[in-house]
UniProtKB/TrEMBL annotation:
It comes from Musa troglodytarum. This is Malate dehydrogenase. InterPro entries: L-lactate/malate_DH (IPR001557), Lactate/malate_DH_C (IPR022383), Lactate/malate_DH_N (IPR001236), Lactate_DH/Glyco_Ohase_4_C (IPR015955), Malate_DH_AS (IPR001252), Malate_DH_NAD-dep_euk (IPR011274), Malate_DH_type2 (IPR010945), NAD(P)-bd_dom_sf (IPR036291). Keywords: NAD, Oxidoreductase, Tricarboxylic acid cycle. Its EC number is 1.1.1.37. Residues 1-22 are annotated as: Disordered. GO terms for biological process: malate metabolic process; tricarboxylic acid cycle. The keyword Glycosyltransferase does not apply.
């Protein structure tokens, strides 16, 4: 950890502490929405314009109109990072009016490739991109970041035992958590993408205690989007017309893709997916296994893991978390369990959530049938085993 000249660890500056995350704002307002005012008042902002600007200034404690948001991407020289950073720079993650400064971190052997990514970002001349930090130093990468997307991790290689992989990732996430704890903005929002994503997020939480537990999440939005895509293809409808699928549990083959409460927009109104598909055998069989095994299918087809879809889903996750979910719509996020739906507290578990004002809330009161209960419990059991294995690597 970086030391000051006097030998003491540099502490976070609390004088620039961020207020609570900003309220959800609309990015689809017509460009001329604020100009219906009298000529003599043209120099004054309309009440609507003032309100929009005020709300925007709560975005992670910065002004969308003036101050850039600092976004960290670890493993930035890798496949997902290479797909993700231009999306962030284009405004896909935080909106078309939000300037960003990208902080990119990777391991020393990837330093040259990382610099190549930096050069391409400069060459692309993204108007929203106000700066790039490309480094192999975790302290430099984490300093002042408002959002951290943790893509870097140690992948399982042929012949490796599960505990060996877990041990490698525990070490990585313990170290990076310590850097975020000491140097990130106090209200930093964290999304863990690298597998095992749920347990990596849990380790990060343990070693970054000053970051609120609600600010540490993992990516299951990719699985959520895969579920929407499968229903869209099955019914031959636009994917944007399908909503409220759920991914329960672990980002692994035990996850439970659930469409018990999902609906499809039709000319005669919203209809339940189960009613339109009318094939429970498919919904409880092939649909679930297709979503669970989609990552493996892509590896088999491309000889590479999912990158484009993972990057897009990471943007979806952060965008909805920060800007809010549409009314009547929920999404799936891996979040810290509070015991909802009888899921053991203390796990990072994927739930259906709504987001508003930069905060997520678990959707409550959904009916859980016997089939679903068994699926929820099975993936929770796997996560409990992963947690125990990870903690054993710390001792």
């Amino acid at each position: 950890m970086r030391m000051s000249a006097g030998g003491r660890r540099r502490k976070k500056r609390r004088d620039d502490a961020l207020p609570k995350p900003f309220a959800a704002i609309s990015l689809s307002m017509p460009a001329d929405a604020h100009w219906d005012v009298k000529k003599e008042d043209e120099e004054r902002k309309s009440d609507l314009e003032i309100d929009r600007e005020t709300r925007a200034q709560h975005l992670l404690g910065v002004s969308m109109a003036k101050d850039p948001v600092r976004v960290l991407v670890t493993g930035a020289a890798g496949q997902i990072g290479y797909a993700l950073v231009p999306m962030i720079a284009r405004g896909v993650m935080l909106g078309p009016d939000q300037p960003v400064i990208l902080h990119m971190l990777d391991i020393p052997p990837a330093a040259e490739a990382l610099n190549g990514v930096r050069m391409e970002l400069v060459d692309a001349a993204f108007p929203l991109l106000k700066g790039v930090v490309a480094t192999t130093d975790a302290v430099e990468a984490c300093t002042g970041v408002n959002i951290a997307v943790m893509v870097g991790g140690f992948p399982r290689k042929e012949g490796m035992e599960r505990k060996d992989v877990m041990s490698k990732n525990v070490s990585i996430y313990k170290s990076q958590a310590s850097a975020l704890e000491a140097y990130a903005a106090p209200n930093c929002k964290v999304l863990v993408v690298a597998n095992p994503a749920n347990t990596n997020a849990l380790i990060l939480k343990e070693f970054a205690p000053s970051i609120p537990a609600k600010n540490i999440t993992c990516l299951t939005r990719l699985d959520h989007n895969r579920a929407l895509g499968q229903i869209s293809e099955r019914l031959n409808v636009q994917v944007s017309d399908v909503k409220n699928a759920i991914i329960w549990g672990n980002h692994s083959s035990t996850q439970y893709p659930d469409v018990s409460h999902a609906t499809v927009k039709t000319p005669s109104g919203e209809k339940p997916v189960r009613q339109l598909v009318s094939d429970d055998d498919w919904l409880k069989g092939e649909f679930i296994t297709t979503v669970q095994q989609r990552g493996a299918a892509i590896i088999k087809a491309r000889k590479l893991s999912s990158a484009l879809s993972a990057a897009s889903s990471a943007c979806d996750h952060i965008r909805d978390w920060v800007l809010g979910t549409p009314e009547g719509t929920w999404v799936s996020m891996g979040v810290y369990s509070d015991g909802s739906y009888n899921v053991p507290a203390g796990l990072i578990y994927s739930f259906p959530v709504t987001c508003n004002a930069g905060e997520w809330t678990i959707v409550q009161g959904l009916s859980i049938d016997e089939f679903s209960r068994k699926k929820l419990d099975a993936t929770a059991e796997e996560l409990s085993e992963e947690k125990a294995l990870a903690y054993s690597c710390l001792s």
